[in-house]
Amino acid sequence: MDPFELLFEQLLISQQGRRLSRHLLFEKHKRSVAHIITEQHNDIINASYTVTDSSPHSAKTPLDSLKRITLSELCLDTVHHGRVLVCRNIVKPFKMNAVQLIVEDPIVETGTGNSSATDSEVVADRLSLYNFVNFVGWRSDVSDCLPVGARLLIKEPYYKMAADKFPMVRCDNPGDVIILSNEQVDMPLLNGLKWSDALKISYGPVQAAKFESSTPDQLRFKGNEKVKHKEYASAIAIYTQALALEPNNAIVLSNRAQAHLELQQFRQALKDADLALTIEAGNIKTRFRQAKALYGMKRYQEAGGVLRDLLQANATNTGIQDTFRRTLERIVEQQFGRYKVLDVFQEARLTHPPRLDHADYVGPVHVVQVAGKGRGIVATQDVRPGTLLMCSKAYAMVFKEELAKVHIRHIDDLPMHKNYLSKTHLITKIAHRVQQEPWTTRELYDLYAGVDLPPFIDQNPEIEGSQIDMARIEGIILANCFKPDNDSWKPFAELMVTSEEDEVHNKLDGSAGLWILPSYINHSCVANAHPIIIGDLMFIRAFRDIAKDEEVCISYFPLSPYQERKERLQPRKFDCQCPLCEFERSEPAAKHTRRHQLLEDFGKLVPKIGTGSADMIPRVESIVSDLRKTYPSVIPPKTEGSRKKKKSPKVDLGTSILPQQFRLALINPLDHLGRLYLLHNHREQALQVFLELFGLMPRCGDMVQKRMGYALAISSEYEALGLLGTRNQWVDVSKKESELMYGEDEGTPLSWRGNTLGTGNERTCANVSGFRIETPLNNPVVARRREE
Ligand SMILES: C[S@@+](CC[C@H](N)C(=O)[O-])C[C@H]1O[C@@H](n2cnc3c(N)ncnc32)[C@H](O)[C@@H]1O
């Protein structure tokens, strides 16, 4: 069809509010497929978005209470509660973000052997299945899972206008889609229905009963071919056909176990491997697959037992040896919380995307009710600073690097909002996991889902996939999602709890993930613990002493002046009652206003400060001085650092969190002032500023990383002054702070073992908040001074 003819017909139809004719549906489908193929050639991945105005619908009514509805009865912008659509797929589907099909109604038999409609009258329409098949990519071939002729039931269908201004049936919830097998044709719902004899498609041969004429062996080979091409979902569909013909075929069962392993469907893999072993007990390959499935399910002890037995008979098999070694490492992690942190960093660097293979660890903490906060986490014993409280692997995570590959363009070139990307994909990933692993649904649905959703109260120990509830999943990620700082594992995570749509979408652009146990940790501005995200692992360590039964809290955002924190808490719908907030609330309002004004003045100067102009020094000094005056009894900065004064400074380790000592408004301006001093070689003043900054930083939340950075900067300045003893003392301080955050790796704090935090050569330069500081080895002025 001529593209202009197509456009003209589309225009006419859209003006008349009619659904697309059958041949137009085919033309559009064909064009979309051709478009995808071209884009594939250009190595661009498309994602098609149809953004719902309301929360995605999930049917709650059981199938046998639903009444049939036909395509022609569907009303626009309506969720058809209490109804079910019976339909048949009539095209080779394609998958972008959603699986796109064209489906048709069945024909009603009249009882006289005639049908109520002729073939040409059978209504067809578009169906978009979101979150549906395995998330193996936007371009996956899903035709083996949804072949032409597949009969489907869509519970409580939603009919809506798509972004191209034509209607379509949209289904967000995989649990609401039932693909009927050959045995399911006798359902009462299908009584009196038959399908048009000719599958009225305009291209390609039709194979409704695709595999029926094949033998189990032929199907096995076909499945193996799919595995070779990494099309695991298709392979599983084909092996399943083979097993329908020969249920006890141990080889097919074992091969299907392998395909499930590839898709990380460990429980299904274990089921197949177990069954295959009851038929052929000694099969090494199948036992190895069984061990891998156990490993995937985190049943490391059992996996270890199987692997040990296997090794006894196959001592030289390197694959088994390697899996056994990894299993032992997981057992040590799971039981003792011992991680080789440096290796974890390395692994995160080398794995793309960095989904890491490590065990979860639950340290001395448990979940309890906390007055006024719902549930929370408390320590089960006294805990020392640096103690690992938990290590948790993300329930689901999307990485910026994955999203970067997605070129957002609707198939009809309509502009789409990029910021929906990570949110949509995180929801999809979670829905997919729920679908694949229904036994994990309970722990997911138990999470707080926002003020508008009541707690989940289903008492079933194992919630079935049909209970996938996209609205709840959305609520859960908005209340509990952590977003690592832009570039992967910077130790700052922000929890998003907001009802402000735009804000949420903006924040959800980039990497984002959901971690189950950490989601129970409540907020405090003076947090005693802090999360570090490496790949998809979250480590949470204590930053201060925590007494038995004391609550463990993290900060949901960086520690900032009161006004800013207040604004950030507003959409989260709770007031923070931490000692700092209590104290600052009790301060006279005039002080807050004055600080706010001064910080606004400072904000206006920032672009000019960025140019490094020396004129900025007195201006920033004046703002800093005025800010100091807004705090009571400001302790003047110590005057250490003189070359004559050899006495080591008394280092404040920040263990005190007396709210009166916080002077948060000073931090940012002082940081800029320090940089300016350095830039203009006023090194002694810079040292004073860094010393003051270090003193201003309590051991709270993200402050620990800054403390580490300033301690490093101070040590560099002492080195420049030739005060090596003092320098070493500050190096130790920085090491201590680094240990607090990352733990120790074989006795050496992580930041000193590579370039994970600084520039990689911390003897020659340090990195404070991204600002390079020169030391004698690379600063000619200081080097000369030393020579003198
Ligand atoms: C990530 S969840 C924390 C666990 C949650 N308390 C629960 O019961 O599952 C975040 C929610 O916990 C509550 N919350 C967290 N910190 C709080 C605090 N300091 N005071 C009051 N409520 C808090 C708020 O309802 C917030 O939206």
Automatic annotation (TrEMBL):
Keywords: TPR repeat. Transmembrane segments: none annotated. It comes from the Eukaryota. It holds the Pfam family TPR_19. Residues 363-557 form the SET domain. Coiled coil: none annotated. This is SET domain-containing protein. It comes from Jimgerdemannia flammicorona. InterPro entries: Gramillin-biosynth_MTr (IPR053209), SET_dom (IPR001214), SET_dom_sf (IPR046341), TPR-like_helical_dom_sf (IPR011990), TPR_rpt (IPR019734). TPR repeats lie at residues 216-249.
